[in-house]
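Quick bug: HTH araC/xylS-type domain-containing protein output formatted oddly.
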Amino acid sequence: ARQDLLCMPRGETISDVANRWCFADASHFTRRFQELYGYLPKDIATHGDLGRTLR
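Here's what came back:
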């Protein structure tokens, strides 16, 4: 999912990524993503691969 956010085409939303990964809604996806990575999906979609700088 993180890679999908990094490569998100213009016009695609976080909800689209959440749906592709079979989450019922974007809120659930966002909570689980933040638990795993420590930052929000919108942060990686906006600023790039934060995982390399935060870990």
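Actually, after a second look the formatting is fine. The mean pLDDT is 86. Closing.
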